Amino acid sequence: MKNTKVTINDKQKKIKLPTGTRLLVRKACIATLKCENFSDIAEIDVTFVDDEEIRSINNEFRGIDSATDVLSFPLGENGVYDVNPETGAKMLGDIVISVDHAFAQADLYGHGIEREIGYLTVHSMLHLLGYDHVNGGVEKMRMREKEEQVLALLGLSIVKG
Q: What superfamily in CATH does domain 5-153 come from?
């Protein structure tokens, strides 16, 4: 995991990301890989955007003309990934997070922005690794369990009382 490269770009200017956000995103990516026993060198690109930009991306790539919280663009399928010829790293894909949505959802769900960004990163990482929840049922439950497992490792799980 020490050779995993997480490239982070902040392309929005509306909201200043809290101190430690980049470190949190890196930790969330690495913790997800660890939980999935992914032992290869990996590369992940994470980009922070505003609602206007994620709406445009969502419309262009998914034909959905609305903003969303996070988009995942996996570069692999069935555990087979493109490999960076210079580093030998498996290129897992791209994660695009709407900062506008992240702050709104943190308020809506009554938790901190750190937990929300951690959750969105873990959720998207699982998509890059082949998990899906679109069909609901067992797949959705399995993905949710994995999310909570990783969030607990990061100290971001929600305690239910």
A: Metalloproteases ("zincins"), catalytic domain (3.40.390.30)
